[in-house]
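Bumping my old thread because nobody answered last time. Still need a sequence for this structure:
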């Protein structure tokens, strides 16, 4: 079963609605959540761009700190809303990535992949939604899918020109630097890279 543009738009709209209603207060009455204030906003004010290089809890938080720096450009009062809205966009992008036709090698049926993506947005842990502090949990979904495509999808290398777009590559690198669990994926990626290099010799 194959879908065109409209189901993709429908999925995005559905994800926006579902995630919004997981924590509507995050956008209707935005407040800093957990490390949003003490770590990201405060450090950005104190250290400006250098805050990106400040580790916390043993790892870097590149994407949350960049989002915070960007949000602060529109005034401190608007910063919590922009941070939460950015978390919404990143979560939607990460989850909806599963619906990409590249992942038919995981779930061949497009409708099942669409439903699976929606179910991810319905996980019974509302704290992870709509705050930049917990965005790593959605980034690891994206990174796992991305790495699975590189490692297991034989068509991936054949379509490298369209897959390795600059924006997606930058986002992927930043996601790896933000998500500590991404270290689990590195050995597999290194193996594949070495294997493909050997085949080209």
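Sorry it took so long. Here it is:
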């Amino acid at each position: 079963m194959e879908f065109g543009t409209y189901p993709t738009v429908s999925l995005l709209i559905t994800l926006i609605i579902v995630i919004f209603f997981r924590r509507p207060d995050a956008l209707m009455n935005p407040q800093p959540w957990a490390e949003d204030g003490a770590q990201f906003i405060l450090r950005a004010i104190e250290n400006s761009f250098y805050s990106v290089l400040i580790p916390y809890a043993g790892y870097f938080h590149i994407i949350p700190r960049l989002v915070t720096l960007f949000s602060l450009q529109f005034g401190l009062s608007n910063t919590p809303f922009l941070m939460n809205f950015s978390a919404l966009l990143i979560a939607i992008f990460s989850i909806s990535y599963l619906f990409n036709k590249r992942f038919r090698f995981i779930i061949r049926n497009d409708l099942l992949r669409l439903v699976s993506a929606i179910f991810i947005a319905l996980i019974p842990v509302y704290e992870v939604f709509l705050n930049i502090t917990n965005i790593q949990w959605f980034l690891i979904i994206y990174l796992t899918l991305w790495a699975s495509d590189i490692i297991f999808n034989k068509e991936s290398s054949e379509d490298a020109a369209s897959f390795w777009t600059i924006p997606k590559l930058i986002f992927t690198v930043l996601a790896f630097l933000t998500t500590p669990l991404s270290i689990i994926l590195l050995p597999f990626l290194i193996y594949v890279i070495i294997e493909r290099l050997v085949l080209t010799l």
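The radius of gyration is 18 Å. Let me know if any region looks off to you.
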